[in-house]
Design a protein that fits this description.
Helix content is 31%, strand content 35%. By secondary structure, it is of the alpha+beta class. It has a six-stranded antiparallel barrel. It starts with a helix and ends with a helix.
């Protein structure tokens, strides 16, 4: 009977490890479909830069919820609120979108900017960028 109890304990621990591993993978997954981890689909192929604090930074990818910005600027801190302008290069013009957001994460080479709720005109400007850059 002692071995049977030990068997169930080991079986329980294995199941807990599997469950924790599955939860970990869900947290770190880079699945961009809106029904999964992210609220919005990331856009990686747009030509755009962001301007804030008087400097321009390249954008690695962006969505309707935020942007991943390439920078090694150490003066930027997590939870900083920033006023910014994103400049999108479209076929025949440049579209400027001004808004505000919060620095959500920071690494040595990138910062993640989470946009504040999008008012109608900002959302319309982003929709225009998506529509014109995809040729829809």
């Amino acid at each position: 009977m002692h071995y049977l109890g030990l068997y169930y304990i080991v079986l329980w621990e294995v199941n807990m490890i599997k469950a924790n591993w599955t939860n970990f993978l869900k947290r770190v997954a880079n699945d961009d479909t809106p029904s999964k981890r992210r609220k919005f689909v990331r856009r990686e192929n747009d030509v755009c830069v962001i301007e804030f604090n008087g400097k321009h930074y390249p954008i690695k990818d962006w969505s309707m919820g935020g942007a991943l910005i390439e920078t090694t600027d150490r003066s930027i801190s997590v939870n900083d609120t920033v006023n910014f302008r994103i400049k999108f290069k479209l076929k025949d013009r440049v579209v400027d979108v001004e808004h505000t957001g919060r620095i959500a994460r920071k690494t040595k080479t990138h910062i993640a900017l989470e946009f504040d709720q999008l008012p109608g005109q900002t959302r319309t400007a982003f929709d225009t960028v998506v529509k014109e850059s995809t040729g829809a």
